Amino acid sequence: MMSTTLLLSAMAALLELDTTYVFQTLVSRPLVAGPIFGLLTGDVMAGIQIGVFAELLGADISPLGGVIPPSGVVATVIPLALHQTGIELYFGFFIGIAAALLYSHIDAYLRKTRFTWLVYLEIKIAKSPRVIWHTLCANLLLSALVTFVFVSLTIWLSTWAILAVFPYLTPKIHLAFQLAYLAVPWIGLAALLPVFRLKTR
């Protein structure tokens, strides 16, 4: 369990760099990241399902201006890591979405902190241009480390919390989560319909 959590956290840290920092090959999109994490956890079908649901839920959120959308990587890795411990996808999915929203605030804070360093870094790079590579590598390493720690802690804390309260969950609570989970793709599709309608006019 611990080794898989570390592997998933390391992969999440690498994929999260793809969102804005390097490459931007779209492997960080839930539709791609979900099957990757599913392959690592041994349940590709669950990975595809979570990837599609997370993609549909966040498809109409555009990262424009100061908007930092919830992390698709975090939204997919958390449910699949929890599913491997025996926790149902319909619980893990909503924990993943909540974690992705929380991570977007952490990411926003990191970006603001980097912005305050710019003046100092510009002076330093002007004196010695080689410093730019050290600065870039340090920033990428810091971002990856933050993602790794966040995902690892979230998996561990969520597993512990759910297993602690699981015996007290009634069948009605399970049914409510199941129905909410099944409604997710329809909510996502409903949000996309106006977008398609505008493009056809």
Write a brief caption for the model.
The chain has helices at 2-20, 30-41, 44-58, 72-84, 89-127, 131-165, 171-200.
Q: If you had to describe this structure to a student in words, what would you say it looks like?
A:
- The chain has one domain (2-200).
- It is built from seven helices and no strands.
- It has helices at residues 2-20, 30-41, 44-58, 72-84, 89-127, 131-165, 171-200.
- The longest helix has 39 residues, at 89-127.
What spatial form do the alpha-carbon principal axes imply?
globular
- Helical stretch tally: 7
Major β-sheet profile: none
Q: Structurally, how many domains make up the residues?
A: 1
**Which structural class should the secondary elements be placed in?**
mainly alpha
**SSE run:** HHHHHHH
Low-confidence stretches: none
Secondary structure: elements and pairs:
Elements: H1 2-20, H2 30-41, H3 44-58, H4 72-84, H5 89-127, H6 131-165, H7 171-200
Helix pairs in contact: 1-2, 1-4, 1-6, 2-3, 2-4, 3-4, 3-7, 4-5, 4-6, 5-6, 5-7
Using brief descriptors, characterize the structure shown.
201 residues, mainly alpha, 0% strand, globular
